[in-house]
Design brief:
Structural class: alpha/beta
Order of helices and strands: HHEEEHEEHEHEHEHEHEHHHHHEEE
Number of helices: 13
Helix content: 40-55%
Shape: elongated
Largest sheet: 5 strands, mixed, barrel
CATH topology of one domain: Rossmann fold
Strand order of the largest sheet: 1-2-3-5-4
Radius of gyration: 58 Å
CATH superfamily of one domain: Succinyl-CoA synthetase domains
CATH architecture of one domain: 3-Layer(aba) Sandwich
CATH class of one domain: Alpha Beta
Distance between the termini: 180 Å
Strand content: 15-25%
């Protein structure tokens, strides 16, 4: 009778077979990443696939932290490690120790990933760039204390401005510790507040040698700096993330010193030139004002200042005379109109009628009598004449014309 095995026995046996296979104990597999998951523990779970198959992979936190780039779905990669069986699930998978981009180096890919990330966050925006001070009092330099870089910066600085104060903050510019030291130096110079400009500098080198200046911690420290930062890393053709984030990029460390430190002789020449131009402009302005003043002094208003006043006085007198003359004509005209109206009114006056022999008869109550029927024999009447009144007693009445 055949021996009966448990599931665990079978999975364990298969694991031993695979583990003892020399080919599978150290293998590199090429494929495309899919189903990528970066677990909160730091482990990475994903699969790599080609046109017809998939292979499950896992990369633990220790190895994942060594990667220069972040794997993403769709990346073409070469995964190195060993094949083993996860006994609980009975699944074999590739335990990755390293991942390299297929066709593009890991550092180049990491550079592009970080560049795109920081650009989307706005760390490269021109509106965020700070202007360099025209006349700084002191310059902070973050670089190695040995080598040609610091000597070049010192030579250029003191050639342009012999009394300029240089503050060196020595750091490693290459290696694992370099990025942290550079970021800490920038932060410390900001805290001390004793410099007006910071130069972050390094000589030329390969991408690997310049990598400290492509680290995110350096980029964010440069962006957070309240003091303007000049990036002078590598040669003119070398570009780092630090260059994009900094306020000014210099092609070389010597050029950075020229950007940061004003040339005293040039400034003195400019000041003398400005002084000469200012005096010339002032003299020209004074001459112009003097000529204008002379022209103004020859004008009639200044030669005979009271002439215009006298002209207005004569004009005022003429206006007054004209006003009085018009007023007299108006009064005369109104008097004539008044006399005419008074004559008309006088002609219509009852007194004029009474002068011609007419009289006004009133009853004892004062009512005017103008009809016979208003009078009865025995009534007392008042008759008004032109020169007085008479009271009469009606004896009799008789109708007729």
């Amino acid at each position: 009778m055949n021996r009966i095995f448990s599931v665990s026995d079978v999975n364990s046996y298969i694991k031993q077979l695979i583990s003892n296979d020399g080919l599978l104990s150290g293998i590199s597999v090429k494929g495309e990443i899919s189903n990528f998951k970066h677990h909160y523990t730091g482990h990475m779970y994903f699969t790599i696939k080609d046109e017809s198959s998939i292979l499950k992979c896992v990369m633990f936190k220790t190895q994942a932290n060594q990667l220069k780039f972040i794997p993403q779905n769709g990346n073409k990669v070469i995964v190195s490690g060993y094949i083993s069986v996860f006994e609980r699930d009975g699944q074999y998978q590739l335990y990755a120790s390293d991942i390299q981009p297929d066709g593009l180096g890991a550092l180049h890919l990491a550079f592009e990933q970080l560049k795109n990330k920081l650009q989307e966050e706005g760390l490269f925006d021109a509106s965020k760039k700070k202007k360099l001070p025209l006349l700084p009092k002191s310059i902070g330099v973050v670089t190695s204390s040995t080598g040609a870089v610091i000597r070049d910066i010192i030579n250029v600085t003191y050639r342009r401005h012999s009394k300029m104060k240089l503050v060196l903050y020595p750091v490693a510019v290459q290696g694992v510790q370099a990025a942290g030291q550079i970021a800490a130096a920038i932060k410390k110079l900001n805290e001390l507040g004793q410099v007006d400009v910071i130069i972050v500098a390094r000589g030329g080198g390969s991408l690997e040698e310049l990598w400290a200046f492509n680290e995110e911690v350096v980029a964010r420290s440069v962006y957070a700096s309240k003091i303007p930062v000049i990036s002078a890393v590598g040669h003119e053709t070398d570009y780092t993330i630090c260059d994009f984030v900094s306020d000014v990029r210099a092609p070389t460390p010597s050029a950075a010193a020229e950007l940061a430190v004003p040339d005293v002789e040039v400034l003195n020449y400019k000041l003398q030139n400005y002084n000469f131009r200012m005096k010339s402009a002032l003299i020209k302005k004074l001459n112009l004002c003097e000529n204008q003043l002379q022209k103004i002094k020859t004008r009639p208003v200044f030669r005979q200042p009271y002439d215009r006043i006298n002209q207005y006085r004569l004009k005022l007198d003429n206006e007054i005379k004209h006003l009085f003359r018009n007023n007299e004509v108006l009064i005369k005209d109104k008097k004539g109109q008044f006399a005419l109206l008074a004559g008309k009114l006088d002609a219509l006056s009852p007194l004029k009628i009474m002068e011609r022999g007419y009289s006004v008869v009133r009853s004892s109550e004062g009512n005017i009598i103008n009809r016979l029927e208003q009078v009865n024999p025995g009534d007392m009447l008042e008759i008004s004449f032109n020169d007085g009144k008479a009271n009469c007693n009606v004896i009799s009445t008789s109708p007729g014309n």
